[in-house]
Design a protein that fits this description.
The chain is α/β, with parallel strands linked by helices. Helix content is 36%, strand content 25%. It has a domain at 1-73 and 202-265: Rossmann fold, CATH 3.40.50. Keywords: ATP-binding, Nucleotide-binding, Transport.
């Protein structure tokens, strides 16, 4: 799998005229990588993910998955949102099967695939439960299982743990690393949480504030992510200081802006 974004540019029409959300975005993600993008609110990181998912159309530039141009949503890209987006009237099993059903997969095969990924995320015992019976962390595990069940080439994650409490968030971060290692799934995740990006990813793209551009790519090499104390290591703090310094000036500029940007987080 190879994802390539070339000279990506995105504008929105507003009452004040054209608003540039993203400008000259160039990035790549290789098979099996875990890559994060971080940026302040208004940097266009959610817009970037939606463009890669095919949910938005670029103003200019191109997005390629294995040299095929992205022109809309596709089963080669799985998506996990911050909100759990589960169908409340469907059981956990039915939610995980849903994408496979849309693809025309037979009932037996989709049940087998859904059961496998429910086991992967540790929720086999909740297959018949409704979403309302689950905790926030469990709901997000179901959403991840549903995205993985279609066996996408890349999993796109839009601040998937942003709505969780701190303790659950840390558990889910460890869980996601385990899923990544065990399935060798390629992951591109956006987050405003710098510590989360450093802990999870191998590379970080740091986005500037409006218009969103890539200020720098930061390579992350930590001694051991399985050690829960790794966030206290000096090298972890060094990475955090580096990323925060890149974000700092943009944060100051953004806080002085009077125009709300609800569409381009």
């Amino acid at each position: 799998m190879h994802l390539e974004v070339n000279q990506l540019h995105k504008q929105f029409k507003t009452r004040r005229g054209l608003l540039t959300a993203l400008k000259d975005i160039n990035l790549h993600i290789e098979e099996g990588e875990f890559v994060c993008a971080v940026g302040e609110s208004g940097s266009g990181k959610s817009t970037l993910l939606r463009l890669i998912a095919g949910l938005e159309t670029p103003t200019a530039g191109e997005i390629l998955v294995d040299e095929m141009r992205v022109t809309g949503p596709g089963c080669d890209r799985g998506m996990v949102f911050q909100s759990y987006t589960l169908y409340p009237w469907m059981s956990v099993m039915e939610n995980v099967e849903f994408g496979l059903k849309l693809q025309g997969v037979s009932k037996l095969k989709r049940r087998q695939q859904a059961a496998y990924y429910l086991e992967v995320v540790g929720l086999s015992g909740f297959a018949k439960a409704l979403p309302q019976e689950l905790s926030g962390g469990m709901k997000q595990r179901v959403a991840i299982a549903r995205a993985l069940a279609s066996r996408p080439k890349i999993l796109l994650m839009d601040e998937p743990f942003g709505a969780l409490d701190v303790q659950t968030k840390e558990v889910m971060q460890q869980f996601l690393l385990e899923i990544w290692r065990s399935t060798n799934t390629t992951i591109f995740m956006i987050t405003h949480d710098v510590e989360e990006a450093i802990f999870l990813s191998q590379r970080i793209y740091v986005l500037s504030a409006r218009p969103g551009t890539i200020k720098q790519e930061v390579q992350i090499q930590l001694p051991s992510k399985s050690d829960p104390q790794v966030k206290r290591y000096p090298i972890f703090q060094k990475y955090k200081d580096e990323v925060m310094s890149l974000l700092h000036n943009d944060g100051v500029q953004l806080s002085n802006s009077t125009e709300a940007l609800p569409l381009i987080n």
